């Protein structure tokens, strides 16, 4: 064929990349690998096979990690921890810089090995994954250098267990290892059993680069190895990327253990195209959103939502574009798509597509001419999909796009949020005001405007809802590997009753108010408990004071419903929220003497201490009133033509369980930051001083706070906590009290994967600003949504 013919047909011949160097590296290890522990490879066990997805042929034998292997790795990490931290930020920065340079020097070998092991096209490994790996180590070398000045009140968490998936084996390793090591932690990492080779190569490069022995440990194996890491008592934090189902198991298994937890889980991300979008650009965006890495991407834009006016045209042009996609050998530099990672994943994709067709979808696929023996699947488009269809709600994790239409921006938001997930979203519109108006309404941790699948080490990534919690990347990612210094050597709370020994005296109530029973506070109104039952409250002396309502499951349900209905508070201006808190402080100040007497009577502290608690509560309200319109986001400048806006957002409805000590100050310290950031709360006061909280709702009644923003349900704390933890419309839990309260909250939060901010029974000095207020509470009261905005032509 002549050159002119090629220009006419635009056909490309194969352009295979040599795998010679990768094969030579495998041969140097006799294609058999042990673990990497304490700076060296262990003797290979060879129980697992690592296969090439494109051919089904074996690449290497791997060792199945046992509990003893995990124990050895944790011991090595613990032994290296003190010296690694003693290096200081600059010393660790030099090591991370060396790792970044090592990745760049061996970029071609890493890219080829990644493609052989995972099945993704070489051009993705070469042009996306490996450069981002180097970028992460450079970026976090900088955070290591700045750690002492930027995080002076924080310390490393310790030994970190990390479990990464098979879709981005090397990149996920960098996302997790780089911040952990930079900030003074040591690591035990388990790569996915199907794709462990680049992790082992990276360990070898780290050894050659002089990383101290034991700082990084790699243990290969299947899910049982990961379970052993999660369960190991010597590990202080678990960072997991994978399926929502496994994330739930990890949350339940670590409940009450005190382990910090970062979960980056599944997704079903919407790709929204408005009728004023650049259609050609949006179609190329679809290609990148769903057929990048064969759709094996947690944030893949797998739900296409197109405005009715352009729907038919868009779908017709998308089908034509699909016909140009080349599915073939992953090492062929002309391949747009490679192979799915394994026969198991291939069968899952096939099964779900068949189910979608049975449920009424129309299927359009590209004809394939692929190498034999591989796990190849064609680019697939399902149209006519109902929003409740299985393929529209379940994560397929393959090259399958489901398409629906919408009429108005409000309908687009409703469809986009019609998911249990909340990882990412993409918006396409030439009207930037429309795009920026829709972005805050989407339940997602990342929003891309007129772009998709943008990642950078400086910009946080992570989800909401059942897509998990925590952030990876940027400053947000640093906090995941640090803990406040004040958490060191905290005393455990004394959970014995605060009431003096001796029988309670059921004498006439104080002040002769024999028939007074304080009600619950729900939706801005004082209401009787559903069960029409009350419980007695006593003075520190044992004298009976008054009764309070004994709330039950239905009362919590009503309170949560009221909080959900008060969603407008999350959209109120920061100035409005600040004024609300100042007004509460003003009205509390007018009744300061009354509250001081109540505190002294119920807790037994001196009049001076009681007044000091009231004054501290007023001051704390002022602090969060001040923060309400000053806790701003950031503008990141990633290495592209555009910016990323890091916007703190309210979590939603938060359940709060207060401790017994310092009942007014602890109540305010927990509720005020949540309200300041736009959340709505359902509060369970401590049982023994519940009257302090019920007195407070009279202050709320006169403070111009919308009904439903603060709801108070008195009763038995343990029982009401269980109801809050199991309620799927509660988005997070803040719990202070006995250690078993924390365990209950974490264990029962798995239904919708609530964020839990608990104390594991540690006693808080609420008068100490370092322990009782500040940045930690504001970060826990928000999640950061990163909105990417490219600019230019």
TrEMBL record:
InterPro entries: Ald_DH/histidinol_DH, Ald_DH_C, Ald_DH_CS_GLU, Ald_DH_N, Aldehyde_DH, Aldehyde_DH_dom. Coiled coil: none annotated. The active site is at 264. GO terms for molecular function: oxidoreductase activity, acting on the aldehyde or oxo group of donors, NAD or NADP as acceptor. Keywords: Oxidoreductase. Belongs to the aldehyde dehydrogenase family. PANTHER family: ALDEHYDE DEHYDROGENASE-RELATED. This is Aldehyde dehydrogenase. It comes from Herbaspirillum aquaticum. The lineage of its organism: Bacteria, Pseudomonadati, Pseudomonadota, Betaproteobacteria, Burkholderiales.
């Amino acid at each position: 064929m002549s050159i002119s013919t090629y220009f006419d047909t635009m056909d490309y011949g194969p352009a295979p990349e040599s795998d010679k160097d990768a094969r030579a590296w495998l041969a140097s290890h006799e294609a058999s690998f042990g673990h990497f522990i304490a700076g060296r490879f262990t003797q290979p066990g060879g129980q697992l096979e690592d296969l090439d997805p494109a051919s089904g042929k074996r690449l290497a034998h791997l060792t199945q990690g046992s509990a003893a292997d995990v124990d050895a790795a944790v011991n090595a990490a613990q032994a290296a921890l003190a010296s690694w931290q003693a290096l200081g930020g600059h010393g660790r920065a030099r090591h991370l810089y060396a790792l970044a340079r090592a990745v760049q020097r061996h970029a071609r070998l890493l890219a080829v090995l990644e493609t052989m092991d995972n099945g993704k096209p070489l051009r993705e490994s070469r042009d996306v994954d490996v450069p981002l790996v180097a970028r992460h180590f450079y970026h976090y070398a900088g955070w290591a250098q700045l750690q002492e000045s930027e995080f002076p009140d924080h310390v490393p968490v310790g030994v970190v267990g990390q479990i990464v998936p098979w879709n981005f084996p090397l990149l996920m390793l960098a996302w997790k290892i780089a911040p952990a090591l930079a900030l003074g932690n040591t690591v035990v990492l388990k790569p996915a059993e199907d794709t462990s080779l680049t992790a082992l190569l990276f360990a070898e490069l780290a050894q050659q680069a002089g990383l101290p022995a034991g700082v990084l440990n790699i243990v290969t194996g299947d899910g049982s190895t990961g379970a052993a890491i999660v369960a190991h008592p010597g590990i202080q934090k678990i960072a997991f990327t994978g399926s929502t189902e496994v994330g739930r198991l990890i949350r339940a298994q670590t409940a009450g253990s005190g382990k910090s937890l970062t979960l980056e889980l599944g997704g079903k991300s919407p790709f929204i195209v408005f009728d004023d979008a650049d259609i050609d650009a949006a179609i190329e965006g679809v290609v990148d959103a769903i057929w990048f890495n064969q759709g094996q991407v947690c944030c893949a834009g797998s739900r296409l939502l197109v405005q009715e006016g352009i729907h038919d045209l868009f779908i017709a042009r998308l089908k034509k574009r699909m016909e140009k996609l080349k599915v073939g050998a992953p090492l062929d530099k002309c391949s747009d798509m490679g192979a799915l990672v394994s026969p198991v994943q291939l069968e899952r994709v096939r099964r779900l597509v068949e189910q979608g067709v049975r449920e009424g979808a129309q299927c359009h696929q590209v004809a394939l001419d692929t190498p034999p023996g591989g796990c190849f699947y064609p680019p697939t488009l399902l149209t006519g999909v109902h929003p409740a269809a299985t393929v529209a709600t379940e994560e397929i994790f393959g090259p399958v796009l489901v398409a629906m239409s919408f009429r108005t921006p409000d309908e687009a938001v409703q469809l986009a949020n019609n998911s249990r997930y909340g990882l990412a979203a993409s918006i396409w519109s030439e009207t930037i005001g429309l795009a920026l108006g829709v972005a805050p309404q989407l339940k997602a941790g990342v929003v891309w405007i007129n772009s998709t699948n943008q990642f950078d080490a400086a910009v946080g990534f992570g989800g909401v809802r059942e897509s998990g919690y925590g952030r990876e990347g940027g400053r947000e990612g640093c906090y995941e590997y640090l803990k406040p210094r004040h958490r060191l050597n905290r005393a455990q709370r004394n959970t014995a009753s605060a009431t003096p020994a001796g029988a309670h005296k059921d004498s006439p109530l104080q002040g002769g108010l024999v028939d007074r029973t304080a009600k619950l506070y729900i939706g801005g109104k004082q209401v009787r408990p559903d069960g029409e039952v009350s419980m007695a409250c006593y003075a520190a002396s044992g004298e009976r004071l008054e009764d309070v309502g004994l709330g039950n499951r239905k009362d919590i349900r009503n309170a949560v419903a009221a909080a959900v209905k008060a969603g407008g508070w999350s959209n109120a201006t920061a100035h409005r929220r600040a004024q609300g808190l100042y007004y509460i402080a003003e009205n509390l100040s007018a009744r300061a003497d009354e509250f001081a007497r109540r505190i002294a009577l119920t807790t037994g502290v001196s009049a001076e201490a009681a007044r000091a608690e009231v004054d501290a509560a007023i001051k704390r309200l002022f602090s969060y009133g001040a923060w309400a319109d000053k806790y701003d986001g950031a503008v990141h400048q990633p290495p592209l033509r555009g910016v990323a806006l890091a916007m703190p957002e309210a979590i939603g409805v938060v359940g709060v369980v207060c401790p017994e000590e310092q009942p007014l100050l602890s109540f305010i310290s927990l509720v005020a930051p949540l309200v300041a950031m736009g959340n709505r709360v359902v509060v369970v006061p401590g049982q023994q001083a519940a009257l302090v909280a019920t007195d407070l709702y009279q202050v709320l009644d006169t403070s111009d706070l919308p009904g439903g923003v603060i709801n108070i349900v008195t009763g038995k704390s343990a029982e009401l906590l269980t109801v809050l933890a199991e309620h799927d419309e509660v988005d997070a839990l803040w719990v202070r009290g006995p250690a078993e309260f924390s365990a209950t909250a974490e264990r029962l939060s798995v239904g919708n994967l609530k964020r839990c901010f608990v104390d594991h029974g540690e006693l808080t000095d609420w008068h100490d600003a370092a322990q009782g207020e500040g940045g930690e509470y504001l970060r826990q009261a928000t999640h950061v949504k990163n909105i990417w905005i490219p600019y230019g032509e």
